[in-house]
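Hi Q.,

Before the meeting this afternoon, I wanted you to have the 5-amino-5-deoxy-1-O-phosphono-D-mannitol prediction in hand. No need to reply - just skim if you have a minute. The sequence and ligand are here:
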Amino acid sequence: MCGIVGYVGGRAALPLIMGGLARLEYRGYDSAGVAIQSPGGELVTAKKAGVLDNLRTAIGDGADLAGSTGMGHTRWATHGGPTDRNAHPHADGSGRLAVIHNGIIENFAALRTELESAGVEPVSDTDTEVVAHLLGAAFAAGPTAGDLTASMQAVCRRLHGTFTLVALHADRPGEIVAARRSSPLVLGVGDGEMFLASDVSAFLEYTRDAVELGQDQVVTLTADSYLVTDFLGNPLQGKHFHVDWEIAEAERGGYPTFMDKEIAEQPEALANTLRGHFDGRHILLDEQRMSDDDLRTIDKVFVVACGSAYHSGLVAKYAIEHWARLPVEVELASEFRYRDPILDRATLVVAVSQSGETMDTLEALRHARRQKATVLAVCNTNGAQIPRESDAVLYTHAGPEIGVASTKAFLAQVAANYLLGLALAQARGTKYPSEIAADFDQLAQIPDAVRATLAGMDPVRRLGQDLATAPAVLFLGRHVGYPVALEGALKLKELAYMHAEGFAAGELKHGPIALVEDGLPMVIVMPSAKSHPMLHRKMLSNIREVQSRGARTIVIAEEGDDTVAPFADTLIDVPIVPPLLQPLVATVPLQILAAEIARARGYDIDKPRNLAKSVTVE
Ligand code: M6R
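Predicted structure with the ligand bound:
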């Protein structure tokens, strides 16, 4: 959360920074702000609570913000409400230094008390302002006086927590100093100009040459140079890389929202995730850095993740246990390390994360590694912190996901987890090679099945309009349909701000059935009649139970399932696929349903309230 952009070069900084912020707004939209070094030697700032457009309006033609060195920030609030006063940049007492920040300074309360005892009167409620005052003091006097880089190094040594910090000082024209610990920061190297950003999409238009900054590093930028050091001032080598994403990939491509576009991209995201992972005989996890021998030593798997990624782990449990005969536990990353799980060298911890930045998941994997478990990241973001800190990585190739609600990344996570399940089965010999080949072949047909599902979604869109005024929606599933039900409910909560709950259908009679009343919409994910006849029969009974209590039944069932039709007020067909793979098709209508209900209720589908795309605080 929080997006950061910096620019130093020969052009007007403001338009470049505002353009970069627009691309990073998905990271947080509680407020936005900029600081520019003016040609007159002053630091000029502008900031505004709310979305970036509010700042744009406040800035007007930007005449006050001329200058070719500057930085910008888009905020997801942690310390201090989303107000003008708490918006970044934050200044020191002199007003000649400004700081922007992504992350949390955990020892900020102690530092603030120390500053207050020294006579500083903070003007905001943020942890960031504390850094501005410390940095201002370090620059003003003492051993680091007049040296912004050394001041930054000294201040960072005092900070606990996670942070990307960027600072400008009016007395250091044409210089930007930044630091990072855990929160993301990349440097873009242009011709006579340099960029800094939380991710490359902010500067891709201007340069594809990038430098990845490591943990606990400080970088000092001028238009023609950059210097990377550690927090003690020792020089370090930045890691260069070339970005080959197309900028159009990160844009809406004609769809009304990123989420609509990302839903439509799911067949391609799945195909890209599966591509290159089967050579006709073997499952290949070539980014995995784990040999078959390594996989054979595993005797237990934990999947740790949050939100939708956690739901992908619940699906993985069914597949991995069935295919590889290995016990799998699925844990919310935020609970994992506090529970003292039993881990050892034979434990594989799979950390699933679209962003690769989720702090709960990152801390869970750090805990696992400290306990000597092997950690495999399943991640969509190349070079992000979670894969960097893992022993091995299996990338999903869903492309950038901008909509806050996860769609194509979720399906790609499910597919990657299946690949892992097949790789474990292959290594452990729990499946014959011919079975692995057949399973992969079925997986490879899924992109077409998702395409077919997407082609039949008009009735779901109409249903969405119809359900816009419902007070709540309940979701029921069994087997792999259960995580699908949870995912459908999560989508509806986060997009439509509607009360929604997912249940294992068997649990209904243990309590949730008390919620059922006349007209309550209930979405039921039907197991396959052919492959799971017993579960199918039980689910039919569950539908009868809720229908007889007045529920409005919306049933997702495989094509040709005639037995369920009499019990469905609305029947939504999905293509027939192998039962374990059903989540890849059955989730799609639920994504579209949530988006349509949210649209009908007039909400911003890409930027649901209170949420951020990457949750980089615990
Ligand atoms: O980037 P991650 O996959 O680690 O994110 C995990 C969750 O924050 C994420 O899936 C969240 O639940 C989505 N908003 C759900 O749509």
